[in-house]
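Hi U.,

Before I forget, here's the chain from the pilot set. I'm dumping it here mostly so it's searchable later in email.
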Amino acid sequence: MRRPLFTHDLTELAEELGAPEEIYEAAAELSPDYVTTRYPNAANAIPAKIYTRKSAEEHLEYGERIIGWVRKELGL
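Structure:
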C-alpha cells in the first residue's frame, strides 16, 4: 500500500497526481506563496503589501483552474 504524500509543495502534488501541464504550471506559480503568506517573516515584508491587484487576480485564476481540474477528476 502506498503512503500518501505529505507536502505543501503544489508542484509535488500535481506531479504525483499526473496533472496536465497547465495545472502543473498553475501549481508552480502558487506554491512559493504558501510560505510567504503563512509565515510573514519569510517574506521580509507584510504579505498584503507585496501583492498587487493584478498578481492577486492571477493567483486567484490559478487557484480556480486547479480546483476546477480537481473537481473534474473527482467527478464533482
